Amino acid sequence: METLIQSEMRKVDVELSPEMLSKCVAIAANHDIKPAKLAGIWEAHSMNNNYDSHGLTEANFTSFRGAVLQSVKKSGSNKKKIAVTPASTSASKRSAGAAVVSRPAMTKRTNSVYNSPDGKRAKIGTDSSSQLDQIANGNTNIASPTATVKRERSSGSSVVTPSGVGTTSTRASTGTARPGSSSAIGYDQRKNAGSTVITYNPQNLSPKSKMVNIGNERLCTITQPFSQHLTKTVRHMTDRPRHVHLNNHLQSQVQELIEVLNIPMQLTEEEEHDNHQGKNQGQENETVKKDSNNSHQWPPYEHVGVPRQSLQTNVGRICNAAHVGKLNTTTIVLEGTKQGSNGSRIELDVSTLEQKNNASFSLFPGQIVAVSGYNCSGRRMVVERLVEGALPMPKNNEEENVNNNNNNVSIGLQTVKTSKAELTRMQYSQETNCQNGKPITVFAAAGPYTTNRDLTYQPLTDLLEVVMDAKPDVVLLMGPFLDMRQELVKENDGEHLTVEYEDGIKAHVSYEQFFMVKIAMELEGLFEDEPDLKTQFVIVPSLDDAIAEPVYPQPPLEDAIPNGGKIMKFFPDTEDTPYGALGLNKIERAGDRKIPKNPTDRRIHLVSNPSTIQINEVSFGFTSTDTFMHLSTESINHKLPPGTRLIRLAEHAVKQQSYYPIYPPPSGAGKEINLDVTQRDAYTMPVQPDVLVLPSRLTPLATDIVNGDTIAVNPGLLVKGATGGTYAIMEIHPMKKEQMEKASAVENGLLRHNVKDRVRVEVRRI
């Protein structure tokens, strides 16, 4: 037992002392806990309480023991809930003994169109022939991921309705719960549905009245003016030299940091010799002199690995010397550029920083930083000052106007600015796609959209009911939509989803067709019920999506077979739905509407992951990848002010000018990511977004960061395991006319958007 526990704890970067090991053995034996589970409890507990850098000690063992006891108590209650009697013989013949969970009737929505030439009854789920064999042998805890779908002819078309005990909903049901499992009712019995988790409202703005939503005119336009994000699939299975792209990025960031921080260059040997001989007496190195009197002045810049007896400044990339395991204060190294430093690496000794009362830092692999200190040997620097990236360099109006007129890019990550005339038109004009003095509402939700034990997609249905009632201007839907980590899909190795007709014929359904039934048809139903609905949907893929490219960055979702799929002869499942089609074009045509020629007039906007868009003047940046979680597990922190850890993580993305600044990406279950560094430009932030949406399983967040120029929002996940999660509602009010006049007089041209002063954010439970 001792060996197993020590081995498992080492996997989470913890080396147990003999005393702590004996205590862990005792608690594992007393409560019948496996070593792997014990290590997992510690990993979660240490991350939540920021114990990562301390390990398991006497000081934190008591709280760890409490976490273990709480986990044991929780698992014990779950076992009581899922204990069931064996299924009857008749029940085992009916969809492998699965119970179909009834769903409440839709209030304002009717049947969605499903063009079908027949009226067959079908089951859509996963192929479960192997599970039937297990149930026949007495195992009643095997999932039955099939559910019935009834297709009925109605006026030349047919509709999809779920079939099951007590079911009255008109939507398709493509999955059922595990027999004897409480997970299916876990979502239905969730507490505090619709309650507010957090609110960000610095100006105490009043909630948007529902009366504002009366009328079907659009109040905003969605544009994608930033060209570096992916627009189509790229080849990634090629042997391109990654080191070239990594070095090019490092070189550009080093140069930018030098300019933004105004770091002086090191004197040449001739200049140093002249100073030493006294030829420039009275004009000694002003840079060094200022450094001794001004804490804001940086010492001269030097390439990484060059020894100096005086203070010097290095700029480079943080790396982990251990290569395996988490970064810690003893394994921090700084890597220089190939051109200046030949890729040299030096150790960073941060012990001096740790001793300073007002010094705090947060570091992770791949981070570009500037450090100053002493490096007398050329191999190790004693760090006295550290900056974790750069903010935009302040420029006076004259320089800024010159840059804008010459179409030059300012140094550092810049915010988007808009002219007074354009702001007035967007926010106060009565023209189409203008706000007419009204606020715009943006919903943000991230998948998964169904619980981990069924394929009913009830949470998505509930979210769309909220959309139908509130009629927001924009809904940001981030994947995964068909989650490859979903248990019913994972247990079948993601091989098949099947349709079973009443006559017993089974047909395989592609992932794209499953997406069409569960996502596209739900959205289509909204616009069938209300063709003039003004809400626009922005759809973002995920790395866990079965229908998307599995490499980051990702292009927008598209049909597996271009141009709407293909009708495949002899395949009954493609008679009414072309093979390889996602069915999104049907949404544009719902309600007898013609597909608009102008992309900004569409109901559905397919964008890449990550992506930066503009809703009217406000820039939104987002990625469906859990950047928060990856940064949290890979970073080390020192003396962060209480309650600022998530804020610091969000600022990392902006300061590093990247939606995914970590390199190499973390390893471990749930954190795998295929990162294509040759496409780094596609996940680089083109501007500092006004609103940065980073969905994560961590605690929901809504706050301003980076001097108040960006609002960071973590809407959470719509579903957490077997129960409901959260989503975000953002209301952005027009800028007051008097503030616009005042800002115009001061800034002399393009105006900052000042979203902080006119936004209201709520994170609610589904």
Report what the structure shows.
With 766 residues, the chain is of the alpha+beta class. It contains 21 helices and 29 strands. The strands form seven sheets. A seven-stranded mixed sheet has the order 4-29-27-13-14-17-18. A six-stranded mixed sheet has the order 5-19-20-22-24-23, with helices on one face. A five-stranded antiparallel sheet has the order 3-2-1-15-16. A hairpin with a 4-residue loop joins strand 10 (368-375) and strand 11. Helix 1 runs parallel beside helix 3. The longest helix has 25 residues, at 58-82. The protein is globular and about 75 Å long.
In short:
With 766 residues, the chain is α+β, with helices and mostly antiparallel strands. It has a seven-stranded mixed β-sheet with strand order 4-29-27-13-14-17-18. Helix 18 links the parallel strand 17 (536-540) and strand 18 (604-606).
The chain-level mean pLDDT equals 77
User: What fraction of residues sit in β-strands?
Assistant: 15-25%
Q: Mind summarizing the main beta sheet?
A: 7 strands, mixed
User: How many helices?
Assistant: 21
Strand order of the largest sheet: 4-29-27-13-14-17-18
Poorly predicted regions: 77-184, 279-295, 394-410
Structural class: alpha+beta
Radius of gyration: 29 Å
Distance between the termini: 43 Å
Helical fraction: 25-40%
Tertiary shape: globular
Label this structure with key terms.
29% helix; alpha+beta; globular; 6-stranded mixed β-sheet; 766 residues
Q: What's the arrangement of secondary structure elements?
A:
Layout: H1 2-11, H2 18-31, H3 35-49, H4 58-82, H5 89-93, E1 121-126, H6 129-136, E2 147-154, E3 157-163, H7 183-188, E4 196-200, E5 222-223, H8 242-260, H9 269-277, H10 286-293, E6 308-320, E7 332-335, H11 338-341, E8 345-349, H12 351-355, E9 361-363, E10 368-375, E11 380-387, H13 397-405, E12 418-419, H14 420-428, E13 440-446, H15 458-470, E14 474-478, H16 487-491, E15 497-501, E16 506-509, H17 511-529, E17 536-540, H18 584-589, E18 604-606, E19 611-615, E20 618-622, H19 627-634, E21 636-638, H20 645-655, E22 691-693, E23 701-705, E24 710-714, E25 719-720, E26 723-724, E27 726-732, H21 737-747, E28 750-751, E29 759-765
Parallel strand pairs: 8-11, 13-14, 14-17, 17-18, 20-22, 22-24
Antiparallel strand pairs: 1-2, 1-15, 2-3, 4-29, 5-19, 6-7, 6-10, 7-8, 9-21, 10-11, 12-28, 13-27, 15-16, 19-20, 23-24, 25-26, 27-29
